[in-house]
Amino acid sequence: MRILLLLPLLLTVPGQNSQISTGDSSLVVLNFKWVATHRTFKKEVPNMAPPPEMTAGNKSAARAARVNNPLIPDPNEQTIDGRSAAMEKIVQEARTANPKPLDGFSYQARVKNTTTKVIEIVFWEYQFIDPANKMATNKMATRHQFLCGMKIKADKERDLEAFSLLGPSDVVSAASLANKSLQEKVLINRVEYADGSIWQRHGWSFAEIKDSYKRVIETPWESEGCRGL
Fold first, then answer.
1. How many domains are there within the chain?
2. Which of 68, 141, 185, 215 is the most exposed place for a label (fewest CB within 10 A)?
3. Cα separation of 197 and 119, whole Å?
4. Domain assignment of residue 79, given as a range
5. For 15-32, what is each residue's pLDDT tens digit?
6. Are 98 and 176 a contacting pair, CB within 8 Å?
7. Are residues 144 and 221 in the same domain?
């Protein structure tokens, strides 16, 4: 199912669709937050050797005898294939290191599809704004952009969540840190629908994330629904 949901990511060529519209977004942000977290990746499962060849001991009578008497050895383990499979398992398990958890941040947003169309792809960003920085014309301290491949049916809500090693901001004024006045905002940058139509926020350009978009879709997706750009 995950492969089917992410297939549009591989087929879409952003910025080259004549049905791009702007205006108010049909994907409404209901609430959002970020939390410091850590993620543990699953240990890689080694490829095992094919099952051993059939032997006379595989017959049902022999299997039943082994069930009644566990001391009777499994003849499969004594075959060449069986011994090879056991050795390969030991080697692969020794070579596969246990992955270490990564400390990072989880960026989350609850959204609602207010149209009658099914959404398949969402580009969105989490912004941090520093109002205390009076010297800057652009008070945005930092922004984190994300890409999500998931179905959001008409008039339904979904949670968007992406893991990132990057925190809220590396450059924040002393006043904001002291007063805890760093403001937060979530923006929907682009929405792609199942019928091929596209909505895009005015002022946002795909060229900003073109290189990171290419990197993200070329890396195999697993269970995650969103990735950082």
1. 2
2. 68
3. 10
4. 56-95
5. 454 578 877 788 999 999
6. no
7. yes
